């Protein structure tokens, strides 16, 4: 059989991740299904998408891997097209189709080289071929371009803010929560099993890409008011955090620091699971809000906690986790990544002395901005007063959708409460790929205390943090009741003043200071329509203010590349349709240019010959210009 499958420790680990993401999504999807028009189309491609992801992580040779990778791309592309009548769906699907096949081309080239043309070769045999390949850096760049275009790392991230908002919400949860992690699986599989060992420069490049992705992702998330586009940009941020951990693992491995390398790789795997859980839950919550309010604009929400309590509390749990606030699972994995970065203080390599502080700065700034972003997302959506009629008349979603969110909330809590058990699984998967065991060094005494493996590393106790948080919360509740506070005097989010929905804090106002500070990146386009009195001056038309931020990479890199491609295509077309006289003039000009260059370099320069050749060249160029004008 040309197709082969394997179930080693790494494959089983990612099968477990996929199932953790899919099972709650099944309940949510079943409750969401009545609101989808093309139900048969959705069901077929939904199950094809799930099976293809399982096929990728269990593939044992290049042919099987590529087959299921392409099936995963095609089924997810069709799921984005589930509601083609919605505005922006078809352009988003077209953009996603292009970017996913852009990455597939590089993966295909990698496999053709690494298998010497025999795609039925298994991964262990591929390593022997790669060891004798003269240009290993070429294979590295092929893998980076192939996997990071699917994972959504900078600068290959531009499809995420288009594809995720266009897809149905259960699909957005699967794509962001699960599919992006399949690309991370590919990096672990082929870097550790096929390309190992690697030079130091590879790890530094992955680290820098991760730092840039985390910072760019959270900055663009802050500027978004489309709730699903905001979450999509946060996927870019969290993929960047995973790549920081992965890059540090590669760096420590190159330097021969095996225990630190394992610690960093475990941190990357831990954050991979964490992001799957809280990002899936966030997209489910966003889908529930979208279903009830019929808009993705955060400015039209408000006060939904009173009418959608299950959605509000589960969204709050995911928001706190993605913001890495203690003692959540997001805090634990980011703490481990910080410890990996801080463990490099004794390294004397100059490149690392520049790259690692930049990564520390990016990760620290990302953490602060992520908190600000989800204060905006949660506060504007669920707190305050209703900002629209749809928000005012919203209600909680059906039982199946609530069950899906509660089940995913259970996954988030399990990753926090049973972090030692998960870390043991990560450690075993890495040991099977040749890494140094690190579990006993992380938990040397008991699972109550998580240690950094560095000599002067830190210690954190998730359970003590949780108990302390619950104790302080209980004390505050007791004090509230003991003081006899029984009546609320004024509406919330009004600083003690009576206010209305139109005068309360908005998402645009909240992000305004940050948008102005990072104006060099955002380059926002502001649109202001001033209200005015009618003819009889009895009423005022409302004023309107809007800010649009166009992504820097899309504006400069992608549009510039498109313009260059159009320009080259135009002149290739014109060249193919030249007249015979113009062909002769062009060839003659090239011959004169070569002859003139030869005379210069051979020191046979003569002013007489230069003047004669210049006159002839001018005449030939004139022939070309006349032909172009005609």
List the helices and strands and how they pair.
Blueprint: H1 9-32, H2 39-58, H3 62-80, H4 89-114, H5 123-131, H6 136-151, H7 160-166, H8 169-195, H9 200-222, H10 227-254, H11 258-293, H12 309-322, H13 329-342, H14 350-382, H15 389-392, H16 399-417, H17 419-432, H18 439-442, E1 450-451, E2 459-460, H19 462-482, H20 507-517, H21 519-522, E3 525-529, E4 544-548, H22 552-576, H23 580-601, H24 607-629
Antiparallel strand pairs: 1-2, 3-4
Helix pairs in contact: 1-2, 1-8, 1-11, 1-16, 2-3, 2-8, 3-4, 4-6, 4-7, 5-8, 6-8, 7-8, 7-10, 8-10, 8-11, 9-10, 9-14, 10-11, 10-13, 10-14, 11-12, 11-13, 11-16, 11-17, 12-14, 12-16, 23-24
Keywords:
globular, mainly alpha, two-stranded antiparallel sheet, 630 residues, 2% strand, 24 helices, 4 strands, two-stranded antiparallel ribbon
What does this structure look like?
Helices cover 70% and strands 2% of the residues. By secondary structure, the protein is mostly helical. The chain has a two-stranded antiparallel sheet with strand order 1-2. Helix 1 runs parallel beside helix 11 and helix 9 runs parallel beside helix 14. The N and C termini lie far apart (62 Å). The model has no long low-confidence stretch (mean pLDDT 85).
Sum this structure up briefly.
The protein is mostly helical. It is 70% helix and 2% strand.
Give the rounded overall mean pLDDT: 85
How is the largest sheet built, in terms of strand order? 1-2
Order of helices and strands: HHHHHHHHHHHHHHHHHHEEHHHEEHHH
Number of separate strands: 4
Largest sheet: 2 strands, antiparallel
- Class based on secondary structure composition and strand pairing: mainly alpha
End-to-end separation in angstroms reads 62 Å
Given as residue ranges, the uncertain stretches (5+ residues, pLDDT < 50) are none
Total helical segments = 24
Judging from the principal axes of the Cα atoms, what is the shape? globular
Estimate the helix proportion, in percent.
over 70%
β-strand amount: under 5%
Roughly how many Å is the radius of gyration? 29 Å
């Amino acid at each position: 059989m040309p197709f082969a499958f394997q179930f080693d420790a790494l494959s089983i680990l990612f099968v477990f991740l996929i199932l953790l993401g899919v099972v709650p999504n099944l309940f949510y999807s079943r409750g969401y299904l009545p609101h989808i028009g093309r139900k048969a189309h959705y069901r077929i491609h939904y199950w094809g998408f799930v099976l293809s992801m399982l096929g990728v992580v269990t593939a044992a040779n290049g042919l099987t891997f590529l087959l299921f990778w392409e099936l995963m791309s095609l089924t997810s592309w069709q799921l984005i097209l589930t509601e083609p009548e919605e505005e922006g769906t078809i352009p988003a699907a077209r953009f996603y189709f292009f970017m996913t096949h852009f990455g597939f081309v590089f993966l295909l080239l990698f496999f053709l080289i690494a298998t010497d043309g025999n795609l039925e070769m298994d991964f262990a045999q591929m390593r022997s071929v790669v060891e004798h390949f003269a240009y290993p850096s070429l294979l590295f760049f092929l893998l980076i371009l192939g996997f990071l275009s699917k994972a959504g790392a900078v600068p290959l991230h531009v499809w995420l803010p288009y594809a995720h908002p266009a897809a149905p919400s259960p699909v957005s949860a699967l794509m962001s929560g699960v599919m992006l992690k399949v690309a991370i699986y590919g990096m672990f599989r082929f870097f550790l099993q096929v390309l190992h060992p690697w030079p130091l420069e590879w790890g530094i490049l992955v680290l820098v890409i991760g730092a840039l992705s985390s910072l760019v992702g959270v900055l663009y998330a802050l500027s978004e008011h489309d709730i699903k586009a905001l979450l999509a940009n946060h996927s870019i941020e969290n993929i960047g955090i995973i790549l920081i951990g992965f890059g540090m693992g590669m760096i420590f491995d190159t330097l021969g620091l095996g225990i630190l390398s394992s610690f960093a790789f475990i941190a990357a795997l831990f954050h991979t699971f964490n992001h799957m859980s809280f990002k899936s839950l966030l997209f489910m919550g966003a889908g529930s809000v979208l279903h009830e309010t019929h808009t993705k604009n955060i400015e039209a929400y408000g006060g939904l906690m009173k009418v959608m309590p299950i959605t509000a509390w589960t969204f709050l749990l995911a928001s706190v986790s993605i913001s890495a606030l203690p003692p959540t699972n997001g805090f634990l994995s980011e703490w481990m990544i910080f410890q990996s970065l801080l463990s490099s203080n004794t390294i004397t390599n100059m490149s690392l002395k520049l790259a690692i502080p930049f990564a520390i700065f990016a990760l620290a700034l990302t953490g602060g901005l992520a908190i600000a972003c989800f204060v905006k997302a949660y506060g504007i959506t669920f707190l305050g007063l209703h900002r629209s009629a749809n928000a005012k008349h919203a209600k909680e979603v059906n039982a199946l959708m609530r069950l899906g969110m509660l089940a995913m909330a259970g996954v988030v809590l399990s990753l926090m409460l049973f972090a030692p058990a998960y870390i043991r699984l990560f450690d075993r998967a890495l040991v099977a790929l040749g890494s140094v065991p690190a579990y006993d060094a992380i938990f040397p005494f008991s699972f109550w205390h998580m240690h950094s493996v560095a000599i002067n590393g830190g210690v954190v106790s998730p359970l003590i943090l949780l108990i302390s948080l619950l104790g302080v919360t209980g004390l505050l509740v007791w004090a509230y009741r003991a003081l006899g506070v029984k009546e609320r005097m004024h509406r919330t989010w009004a600083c003690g003043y009576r206010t209305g929905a139109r005068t309360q804090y908005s998402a645009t106002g909240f992000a305004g200071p940050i948008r102005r500070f990072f104006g060099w990146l955002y380059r926002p386009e502001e649109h202001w329509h001033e209200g005015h009195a009618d003819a009889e001056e009895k009423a005022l038309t409302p004023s309107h203010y809007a800010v649009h931020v166009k992504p820097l990479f899309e504006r400069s890199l992608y549009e510039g590349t498109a313009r260059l491609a159009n320009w080259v295509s135009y002149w290739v077309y014109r060249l193919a349709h030249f007249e015979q006289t113009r062909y002769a003039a062009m060839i003659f000009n090239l011959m004169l240019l070569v002859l003139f260059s030869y005379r210069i370099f051979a020191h046979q320069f003569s002013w007489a010959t230069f003047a004669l050749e210049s006159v002839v060249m001018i005449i030939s160029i004139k022939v070309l210009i006349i032909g172009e004008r005609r």
